[in-house]
Amino acid sequence: MVHAPNPTSEVWTAIGWNGTSSLLAADLHFNRLIRHSKILGITLPSDFFKIVFEKIINIETPEKMNFNELQTPFIVKVTITSNGDISLLPRSNKVWRDLPLNAISMSMPDISTPILGTKHASWHHYLNAIEQAKINGADLSLLFSNNFLIDGDRCTPVILDNDGVAYYPKNSDGALDSVTLEQLRQEIEISGIPIREKKISLDMIMRSSEMIVLGSGIGVGSIGKIDGTIIGKPKGKLFQIAKKAWLNRLKLDWMSIEDMGE
Question: What is the residue range of 65's domain?
Answer without folding.
Answer: 7-95
